[in-house]
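quick one before i forget lol
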Amino acid sequence: MADGFFPTLVSKDANANSQTNPLFHAITDGTDLALIDASGNLSVLVNNGAAGAAVNIQDGGNSITVDGTVTVTATNLDIRDLSHTQDSVKVGDGVDFVAVNVDGSLNVTDNGGSLTVDAVDLDIRNLTLAQDAVQVSANGSVNSVSNPIFVTFAQAPITGEVHNYSTATVAGGGTSNHDYTVVTAFLLKSVEFACSGGGKVELQVGPVATLVSKWVGFVPKQGGLAQVKFDPPIEVPVASTGTVRLIRTNREGSSQDLYSTIVGIDA
């Protein structure tokens, strides 16, 4: 055949070359004869033109499935925000626990189970009668007739008690006033009057300018004690200089000592 350009049909046989009638070739890198292993896998070195350089892999808007273990080394890895409907975070492994700083409020749910909280000085809402019940008992058992609560009644010291005492030497037929000026609202419980001879005592209470008589007592010629108790007590307001006054009279012809006591409580 003369030299020249002729269309040539290339095929491994007399049939036309096609997908079902391919040409078989041995692929080699110049050293190893075959780069295809027994399983039919072709060994390919992929790079971007520089030996050891990184190769970018993209999914073309789809997804890439990787078989095997993938190890990722990263700093400041940015992932999507966690969602309570899609994600769960375990803090601690039951032995070593991780401290978590929460800026704001942290909602914790037990998902139908229970939560155990180890805490000192735990701050919870104020208890209310409508929502809460607190068991009161003398010990760890329920309070009952056979497990009563023991109560001791303590006697607190009485405050505000008043015992106002006065004595005066009074000439025959003369008088002497025994006044107690009220400090707060005063409850008059009782008055006492004594002398060695005949005497008289008159009780007056109220604002000092408008005193009102409440009781009169007498001691006979041989002397003695006149006493009265008020139940309920007589209340004497402090307004306008509240006053309790005992007007003591010597009913003898000669002088004698007259004694009196005002008893009550500064309420």
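fyi The chain has a mean pLDDT of 82.
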